[in-house]
Structure formats: structure tokens, C-alpha cells
Write a structure and sequence with these properties.
Blueprint: E1 3-4, E2 6-8, E3 11-13, E4 20-25, E5 28-37, H1 41-59, H2 63-79, H3 81-92, H4 96-116, E6 123-126, E7 132-140, E8 143-147, H5 155-166, E9 170-174, H6 180-192, E10 200-202, H7 207-216, E11 222-226, H8 229-240, E12 246-249, E13 254-258, H9 264-276, E14 286-292, H10 296-307, H11 328-344, E15 347-350, E16 369-372, H12 379-382, E17 389-395, H13 398-406, E18 410-411, E19 413-417, H14 421-430, E20 435-438, E21 454-455, E22 458-459, E23 473-481
Helix pairs in contact: 2-4, 2-6, 3-4, 3-6, 4-5, 9-10
Bound molecules: NADP nicotinamide-adenine-dinucleotide phosphate and magnesium ion.
Length: 483
């Protein structure tokens, strides 16, 4: 069987030790997707050499020249939309519709970020001397490492690579092992666009080995990571030794508050979209619902009726609404949490089991699960489960709802459902989350609004209008004596 290789300095190359790891389809673990280079520290070194060697050549191109390459990548991405969606579904498990949604989101983010990269404006600042002009310039960081998760394997990679490249950096991509093929196919688009060798390098393999090698290197100049808080903390500790700038987009435990004046039909649809799309594996998934006590049982019954109707199956089947979770380890984690919830005394409303009969027998399928009577002290209310498991909590009033919603180490996204504008505004002010929504799912986002978390959900929420590119540049101050 073919081994998918690293892409270093414009060539597809085997890892130096020629070892490989395999990837399987989470819809049916008997289906082997492929073998992939299992890289070591030496392979990372080769990529770092290439990226450093190329940096000067790429950074002196004008933003306009750089945009021409990336516009070609965008065009090829549009052409490969269908074939790429099949690959994402086969590696990640999400439905084809969700994979196409990911690609379309990536296309619109890319369009925004290419244009944004043409506006790398500095400032002119009056100096204290008459003949001196003060200026600031935006300059690239240098070699940027991009480490991505498996839940949005295409969109998260592009969201980092495009602004990094537009700003004049060279990029090393280390994708999640579970979605290596999407990364290979993505890099093929850059190759087809004839991007100069060494501008973009791809290294496949284990995060704890090569991801760590990137975060400890003194020859990397910026690192953008999306993944778990646990790994983010390790990266931050390593990076601190070299004062390496990091951008960390981490986990969440995102709440939705349902007040008694909410439109319960609309609110339930938004909660279900937030909780069960992509089998609950969005960083911005709704994982806790805090409901006012007067409508608590009514709202749960509405959710139960709709969630029991969700068709679970292979992502490549037309009728499927929710696919498997992404792989055996993920399956084990989610089932563990369901077990923990039961042991802690939460009440199961629906789901709560792996689906194993007939065509499901070799896949990673979990029935969409709802727990009610969840208490703030329970682990399922505190820890990120990252699967199709929703926790429902009751509260006496609006004030208590906000306290419960904020009672988490995370702060990525939140929502409130109400018709009361005054309560909505109070919530907007008091919610401790980087993104917040009124009468919309926690997972909703658009490319030109800043994206990022508070507390343990990450660092570096950019300024509005500068989302994406800000992290990948630094400022230089210039004093120009023209006399
Ligand atoms: P993960 O286990 O943290 O892995 C993320 C990436 O880091 C993978 O490429 C992984 O490689 C690599 N990695 C693992 N250990 C490493 C280390 N010691 N040093 C450097 N890199 C290392 O996360 P995941 O399971 O792929 O993704 C799920 C998590 O991502 C969830 O917590 C979710 O909330 C979060 N997420 C956050 C956002 C956001 O924007 N805030 C968006 C999407 C996902 P391997 O695959 O080879 O292990
Ligand atoms: Mg993980």
C-alpha cells in the first residue's frame, strides 16, 4: 500500500526512518484509509531548515505577489470541493454535508484573509524633531509552525496558513494524525499553485514527538496551535523558553441559557445544532444547557423528541444526520464520560450507549445523549467531553443562570435564548466567553469577526477587522531623518 509522505522543500519525501502509521475510517474500522510517514525529530529539522532558507525569498515578495499564489490555491480548492469533502468524511466521520460546510467556510475565510493580507498597514507618527519622520511597519515573524486538530482538518489549517503566508511568513504544517490525508490533499493544492519550494512544508507524525520538537525549537518564530487545553499548556511551557510567540485556540465547555420567555422551538433547534452537529466535536459545541425552572421539564421533552429522531450512520450516506465520533480513542473517552455521568447521579434522558448492531458493528457510533439534573460539581458539567453528550442544568432565575454558565475554567463561546433585550444585554456584559450569541447556536461564527477564547480556552483574541493576520506580524518602528 502507498505511503503518504512529508512535503519538504517542494518534494514529497519519506520520513528519514521510513516508518509509517495507519489511519482507519471511524465509520468502519476495517476500512484502512492509508499509511502515512511517521516522522521523527530529524524530519522536523529538515523542514525547519527549508523554511528558514526560503523565508527571505518569500518575505520580499509583495503582498500582491503572494496573493496571486493563494488565489490559485483558492481556485483549486473550489474545484476539488467534492473530492475533498469525501476525504474529510472518510477520515473524520462527519456527514458529507458537514464536510462541504467546512470547505465552504474555509473558502469564505480564505477570500477574506487574502484580501485582508493586502492591507498590512503601518502608521506614520509625528516625531519630536522637525526633519524626522516616525513610521511603523508590519513585518512577518519568520518561520511559523501550524499545529492543527482533527475536528476541522481543512478549515483550521487554512485559517492559520493563509494569514501567515499573506504576512510573509513561511509555514510548517503538522496536522492531527487522524486526519493526515486531508492535510496531504491540501498541500497538493499549494503544489499545484506552484508556490515556491520551502514556502509551505508538511510533516506527518505523532504530536507528542514532532509537535513537541516544533514547540521546543529555537529556529521557529511563531506557533499557532488549535487543540486541547492540556496540550496547549505543554506547548506554552516549552515555547516560553525561547519567548516564542504562541496563538492558542483550545477547548470549551460552552453554555446555552434558556430563559422562560424564549421561543422554545427555535431555542431547541439551535441547541441541537450546537450540541450534535459533527457529533458534538466542535470546540464551540453546546455542551451545557442552563434552563429556568418554570420551563425545565417542557424544554427537556422538546429536546428529547427531536434528538431521538436524529439518524445516526455513515457520513457518506444521504440520510445520515450524525456520523460516528472520530476514532477509537474518542469513542472510549465519550463512553467513559457517559459512565461517569451515570455514576455521579445525572439522569439519562436519551441515548447513553454505543450503537453496535449490524452495519454499526465496526464503527465508532454513539447515540446522541442527553443528561438532565446535572449538578455544577459533576465532572460531566466541568470537563470537555467533545462528543454528542449534552448536560442540562436547572436554575431558579436569570442571575443564577449566569453564575452557573460562567462556572467553568473554559471561556470559548456562549448563548442566551430570550425575548428580553435587557437580559440579553446583561448577559453579553457578564458572560466570560470570547464569542457570545443571542438566540443563535454557540457554534455560529463568521470570518471577519474575531475568534478566540477567554480563560483556559486560549489566548490572543485579535482586534476586529484584524482577525487572523494580527498574530503573524510584528511591528517595527522607524525614525527617518530626511534632512
Ligand atoms: P489535541 O490532542 O490537543 O491535538 C491537537 C494537535 O496537537 C494534533 O495535531 C496533535 O498531534 C498535536 N499534539 C499532541 N500532543 C502534542 C504535544 N505534546 N506538542 C505539540 N503538539 C501536540 O487535540 P485534538 O484531540 O486533535 O482536538 C480536539 C481538541 O481541540 C478539543 O479540545 C477542542 O476543543 C479543541 N479545538 C479548539 C478549537 C478552538 O478554536 N478553540 C477548534 C477546534 C478544536 P496528534 O494528532 O499526532 O496527536
Ligand atoms: Mg486529542
Amino acid at each position: 500500500m502507498r505511503i503518504y509522505k512529508n512535503y519538504v522543500n517542494g518534494k514529497w519525501v519519506h520520513a528519514l526512518r521510513e516508518e509509517a502509521f495507519e489511519e482507519r475510517n471511524p465509520a468502519n474500522l476495517n476500512e484502512l484509509i492509508g499509511l502515512f510517514s511517521s516522522s521523527q525529530k530529524e524530519d522536523i529539522e529538515a523542514a525547519i531548515n527549508s523554511s528558514n532558507d526560503t523565508f527571505f525569498k518569500w518575505s520580499i515578495k509583495t503582498p500582491y505577489e503572494r496573493s496571486n499564489y493563494l488565489k490559485d490555491v483558492l481556485e483549486f480548492l473550489k474545484q476539488e470541493r467534492i473530492s475533498l469533502s469525501a476525504i474529510i468524511t472518510c477520515e473524520n466521520g462527519k456527514t458529507l454535508k458537514e464536510s462541504l460546510g467546512e470547505i465552504d467556510a474555509a473558502i469564505s475565510e480564505m477570500e477574506f484573509q487574502i484580501h485582508q493580507g493586502l492591507r498590512l498597514f503601518g502608521n506614520t507618527i509625528p516625531a519630536n524633531r522637525n526633519s524626522v519622520l516616525g513610521l511603523t511597519l508590519k513585518v512577518p515573524l519568520g518561520v511559523v509552525a501550524v499545529i492543527t486538530p482533527w475536528n476541522f482538518p481543512l478549515n483550521v489549517a487554512l485559517r492559520k496558513m493563509i494569514p501567515a503566508l499573506m504576512a510573509g511568513n513561511t509555514v510548517i504544517l503538522k496536522p492531527a494524525s487522524l486526519t493526515s490525508l486531508t492535510a496531504v490533499k491540501l498541500i497538493e493544492l499549494f503544489e499545484k499553485a506552484s508556490i515556491p519550494s520551502g514556502t509551505v512544508n508538511l510533516v506527518l507524525g505523532s504530536g507528542s514527538l514532532i509537535g513537541k520538537a516544533l514547540s521546543t525549537s529555537s529556529r521557529i518564530h511563531g506557533l499557532s496551535f488549535t487543540g486541547s487545553t492540556e496540550v496547549g499548556l505543554q506547548i506554552q511551557a516549552h515555547a516560553a523558553r525561547n519567548l516564542l510567540p504562541t496563538q492558542l485556540e483550545l477547548g470549551g465547555k460552552n453554555p446555552a441559557i434558556i430563559l422562560k420567555d424564549a421561543d422554545l422551538e427555535e431555542a431547541s433547534n439551535a441547541v441541537i445544532t450546537g450540541a450534535f452537529s459533527c457529533a458534538g466535536q466542535w470546540c464551540t459545541s453546546t455542551s451545557r444547557v442552563v434552563v429556568e425552572k418554570d420551563i425545565y421539564e417542557e424544554f427537556i421533552q422538546i429536546l428529547k423528541r427531536k434528538v431521538e429522531d436524529i439518524t445516526v450512520g455513515r457520513g457518506d450516506r444521504e440520510q445520515t444526520q450524525m456520523g460516528p465520533v472520530c476514532g477509537e480513542r474518542q469513542l472510549e473517552t465519550v463512553l467513559d464520560y457517559i459512565h461517569i455521568g451515570l455514576k455521579e447521579g445525572a439522569t439519562l434522558v436519551c441515548g447513553g450507549n454505543q450503537i453496535t448492531d449490524r452495519e454499526y458493528s465496526n464503527g465508532c457510533y454513539v447515540a446522541p445523549t442527553i443528561f438532565k439534573d446535572v449538578k455544577q460539581t459533576m465532572r460531566i458539567a466541568k470537563e470537555e467531553i467533545f462528543g454528542p453528550v449534552l448536560c442540562i442544568m436547572s436554575c431558579n432565575d436569570f442571575e443564577e443562570a449566569i453564575t452557573v454558565a460562567n462556572n467553568t475554567p473554559y471561556g470559548l463561546s456562549s448563548s442566551i435564548f430570550t425575548k428580553n433585550i435587557s437580559n440579553a444585554m446583561k448577559f453579553i456584559n457578564l458572560t466570560k466567553a470570547g464569542l457570545t450569541h443571542v438566540n443563535m447556536p454557540t457554534a455560529y461564527k463568521e470570518p471577519h469577526l474575531p475568534f478566540g477564547g477567554m480563560k483556559m480556552s486560549g489566548i490572543g483574541i485579535p482586534e476586529a477587522g484584524k482577525t487572523g493576520i494580527d498574530f503573524f506580524t510584528k511591528n517595527k518602528s522607524i525614525y527617518l531623518n530626511w534632512n
